[in-house]
Amino acid sequence: VWHAITGYWGGVRPGVKGMEEYGSVMKYPEITKGVMENEPGWKTDAIAVQGLGLVNPKSAYKFYNEMHSYLASAGVDGLKVDVQCILETLGGGLGGRVELTKQYHQALDASVSKNFPDNGCIACMSHNTDALYCSKQTAVVRASDDFYPRDPVSHTIHIACVAYNSVFLGE
């Protein structure tokens, strides 16, 4: 099953009946001026404009464990946890990006260990150093961005990214 590190790509909306116990708050990515210059799409990105419902980091394990135990009981044997790099933009007021990432990865690692004992987890969009160094359980990391087989121009950069990231990641 594929899910975002925040539960869903827009997170967990605060005030939704049955989800109050997770203590979600609306957070908006804090994007630096330099990144905004290089990635102008952030100005209209749905999360930047509408926000993301971020589960309280102290409730992240409960959130993951309840979701993952349900999935495991339904026969799911692994996960792809996507958009992990979003945490680095949401750490304001929560101890900073490294602290937020550390808390989320500790919770994720503990839940994966408990519910998917064969370490059935693929990390995705997790190449920022915060995620790489805070994750202790996940053994498989996606080494590339999306691949577009019908776009020949994308093939060379895709192969180069996989090669360089594989060297960096040690595989």
UniProtKB/TrEMBL annotation:
Entry keywords, A to Z: Carbohydrate metabolism
Gene source species: Nicotiana tabacum
The keyword Chloroplast belongs to this UniProt entry's keyword annotation: no
Protein family according to the UniProt entry: Belongs to the glycosyl hydrolases 36 family.
PANTHER family (alphabetical): GALACTINOL--SUCROSE GALACTOSYLTRANSFERASE 6-RELATED (PTHR31268:SF5), PTHR31268
Record's protein name: Seed imbibition protein
InterPro entries for the chain: GH (IPR017853), Glycosyl_hydrolases_36 (IPR008811)
Source domain of life: Eukaryota
